[in-house]
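Archive entry: two folds, one per protein. Generate the first.
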Amino acid sequence: MKIRTLMMAGMICNIFVLVAIMALFLFAADRNFNTMGRIVGQEVPGLVGAIDALAQGARCGIATRNVVINPADQKTRENFKDAAKQMDGAFDEAIAASGADPALKDELVRLKKLGDDYLATAWNIQEAAAAGNQGQAEAMLKEQEVPLWRDFRTKTLDLTRKNKQDFKQSAADVVATMKTSKNLILALGVFGIALLIGTSGYVFRQVLGQLGGEPAEVARIAKEVADGNLALELKQGQGGIYGAMSVMAADLRRIIEMVNAGSRQVSAAAAELDASARQSASLTQQALQQSHSVRWPARRCRQRAPTLPATATARRRIPGAPAGPPRMGRRSSAPPRPTWRTSPATSAAQPPSSNSWAPAPIR
């Protein structure tokens, strides 16, 4: 398999794992954010508003009883008005915050109506007490205000308990989601790391298998071979580029040795041929000298031989030929030339002395 394919496969697997981890993280974060948003934006305001309304209702009940006891206490009535105003504000805030939860909103609306009935009854009791109808005020307090307060308190506490249970469940869901997300992210992370290590190890083994050794060592050997250094100590039995370069270096050494051996043989043959040429030249020179020593006396003998009649010569050459009139040869009128003889013991011609006759050059 090609290195590029292996690296691409490993990269794709790692990207897939990272995308899965990111998607899981985003899913868990979105779920937790929604849950936390519901808790913070709906359940907590509803719980806090109900508790605050219950507390303000309790203040109103205390103020009503104080007015029944002391109708002339205007400060108590002002406290009642402030508590009633704060109770209405707490209900309004809780209802506004629970807009995304219709069930909780309906519960808060009914509870606010019950609270408004309680406040109206408490105000009527205070008015009766302030008008001097102490007995009527006490009767209304026992027959109307106490049942209304108990009903309002019970329903408010029930809603508070319900919101508290919802809050705990939501918090448990957030914790469970966070734990599940943590475990899944941890598992995917471990899987991604294992996949990365496995892919990297496989790619590393494939690359080293194709190189046959460390990349720096292979580069050094390639540079040494390129520079002409074939006397390298290479490990045997290696594969990949390292083994191929080892075989190449060995083949190059063998080829160079064969070329060197052939060159030495050619040099030896050239030396032998040169020696043979020199010997042939020496023998040729000796033969020329001997030929010169033989031809020169023979020519001198021909030059000194008398000229015979042509007829006699023809008779000697052609036996039985008819005899013709005798023809006398012409004798030279030049004086006789001096002769130069060689001794029998001397094989080579000797140059004449200064007062002797010089022979004509041999052509």
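Generate the second and append.
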Amino acid sequence: MNIWVAIASNGTQHLGGDYLANYRAQGGSEVGRDQSVEGDIIQLNGPDGRYYYEGMHTAVVVSHTPGSNDFVVVDSNWNWHETVSKHEWNPYASAAAHGLSVHIWRMGSADSPPTAPVAPPEPSGPGTPRGNPNPPGEALWRIRNLASPGPPDAEYSFGGHASIPIVGDWTGSGVDTLGVFTQEADGDRWQLRTEPGPGPAQIEFRYGGPTDLPVVGDWNGSGKDGIGVFTPGTALWRLRNTPTPGDPEIQYQYGGSTDLPVVGNWVGGTADATGVFTPGTALWRLRNTASPGNPEVEYQYGGPTDLPVVGDWAGLGKDATGVFTPGTAIWRLRNSATPGDPELEYQYGGPYDEPVVGDWGGSHRDGIGVFTPPH
């Protein structure tokens, strides 16, 4: 929660201390609906005035249009954007349905009036994507054919406000293409491209539940990627060998309640394996197959706010691990699934960006990219 308040507000707001306490006691100032800005916190309170009660919904504001009861928010049930639902939400309708009240908090000094956020300088460096050139309502992809800094080799618009980026080789061509996954109550929506570049989705279906996260991998060694979902909290994996709807072909539990899923070919075989990364401790626990059991590889790599990335950066025929730091867009990559110092380290991306990895040109080595959600 602390991390997402800082990221959503461009670093102008910070919770400080334990957020599981009265927000006012933590230095917050309450603001009105039409005064809300990125990084403010929406909180639904119980009828007796308590600031916390079982089942409370809290979310971080990403964007809001004055006059509207609808907000684009990041839900705070989990630690990371990949494990939460970024979506449109009407907190006033939710509050009315459950006899609650809506409060919007801006964190900072209780002695100072709320001020509109001032964006910090964006990261600089060769080829740094700058500003927010997204077409209205569309996500922007900026990809590089190598795991290196520099100007984008390609830029595409694909995806919307609540989209989570996914990448896969759905046809066995050797080239990874774009996709997005959207968490929805009536079944998660997958929208995939089978050809490089922008355009409408060429494969579209529903698979997964409202809190699930997408995973992509070649589970059976067919040369084509299949799909799956990972359920935060229960760490249940439900995998399919093709990008199609249907019943799970592989299902098992692996991981802890706060873990993020990772997928890679750690040993150089034909099929991908699964693993988990624990935010905060940056602990990697990897299996050599897509199956349950004890970790076959376990180590710490990364910092407390880092996100995991996986790819074959050097063309060695097996995947390595790395981390991406949100906000600063620093990549720190290893050429193997092992701990140690970064073998590649550079900045690529902007403060709102999310990392993506793929073999964009069929070179048998992975490049990098960033996905910028609409603002």
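Annotation attached to the second fold: The chain is about 5% helix and 35% strand. Residues 172 and 224 are 5 Å apart (CA to CA).
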